[in-house]
Amino acid sequence: MTATETRHCRIADCIAEVPPALRAGAVCLDHFLDEAFARADSALEKCRCGELIDAGTLEWLFADVQITLNALSEVARTRDLAQQSKILELLLCVANLNEYVAHHSVQASHLS
Ligand SMILES: [Zn+2]
What we know:
Blueprint: H1 29-48, H2 55-78, H3 81-103
Helix pairs in contact: 1-2, 1-3, 2-3
Bound molecules: zinc ion.
């Protein structure tokens, strides 16, 4: 490990830089969004199949949203339209999940 400030994405063959908001996961924004979207999507799929979503899954989803919102400022700065629309898609997906959960009496443990 060198003491350089620039960190690169942990995904193989990806040379994108990791924005400050995503340092904890060590992934670039594109890969973070891909992973978050895949998780949100599979959670939504579970809902549609009538499966319950556990509190742990909900918690990471909302944690992801928090990170996404933090990363938004970076994206706004670069004016990357593709990333911006990806973020909107992710937020919409999580909003749908939220809606679903609210109507199916699934409760996150911290909302007691
Ligand atoms: Zn990457």
